[in-house]
Prior knowledge:
Elements: H1 5-12, H2 16-25, E1 30-33, E2 38-41, H3 65-73, H4 79-86, H5 90-112
Antiparallel strand pairs: 1-2
Helix pairs in contact: 1-2, 4-5
Amino acid sequence: MFDSASEYAREAGLDPRTIRNYIQQGKIKGHRKGKGTYWRIDEKEKKHIPNIQPPYPKHYKHYTKAEIYIIESNMDKSNRTLARMLHRSKNSVKIKKCRLRREQHEGKNYNET
């Protein structure tokens, strides 16, 4: 017996709110515990875990060394320009540039001490 939607969510690899929504939609059977603040889910419902998929799977494509070199060499160019060059989203390039700057900044701090 799972004592809460959070425990079931941890097992399924999903957000607890998603599990509560699934219970309300009837995809998973559960009942309220106590004054109705927690959901109890039977152990038998564990069989549904493989069938439950996150609604939007995350797709992350790692940056290659060549792509990182291009970004580092062209830090002055706009994110949009770099995104077009690398066939990436503008936001992805923006985040990578920020992380590269932070790594360079932290590296300088460690070398100075």
